[in-house]
Amino acid sequence: MEAHVNDTSATAATAGQKFFRVLVIDDNPVDGEITARHLGKAWPFERELIVDYAATGREALEKMRFTRYALVALDWKLPVMGGGEVLRQMRGNGIRIPVVVLSGLQRDQIPENLDELGAAFLNKDDMNPLTFHAAIAESLKRLGLVASA
Length: 149
Hints:
The model is unreliable at 4-15 (pLDDT under 50). Strand 4 (71-75), helix 3 (83-92) and strand 5 form a beta-alpha-beta unit. The longest helix is centred in the N-terminal third of the chain and has 14 residues, at 29-42. The protein has helices at residues 29-42, 57-66, 83-92, 129-142, and strands spanning 2-4, 19-25, 48-54, 71-75, 99-103, 119-123. The chain is built from four helices and six strands; from the N terminus they run E-E-H-E-H-E-H-E-E-H. It has one domain (2-142): Rossmann fold, CATH 3.40.50.2300. It is of the alpha/beta class. Strands 1-3-2-4-5-6 form a six-stranded mixed sheet.
């Protein structure tokens, strides 16, 4: 499934216009749509945003093998393969995509060191365009893709 977020013309990407593709990984389609909506408003770049969806960690890892993403929004509580395992496999396979981990849990309830894994955390209850924008910036910094202020 794919959605064009920042441009009303679904053909913009195919007309030679530059775009960024992001992957939203969430087993709940409603939460995935809400995430995409907030992401579209928070997106810090002046290019079209194309959103792909994956409902499982395995599906997400497969998509990342064939598609280059600018960002991953990763639900922490996924069935079968949780967000931590997805993130560890991404980094173990050399995938250095900025990741924003989304969860209804509090940050201290997630045992993984997200800083070391180059990921930022955002509680779903606090998600809005401003907090999402800040989380994107934090993930970029943790991977060394932008300078720290």
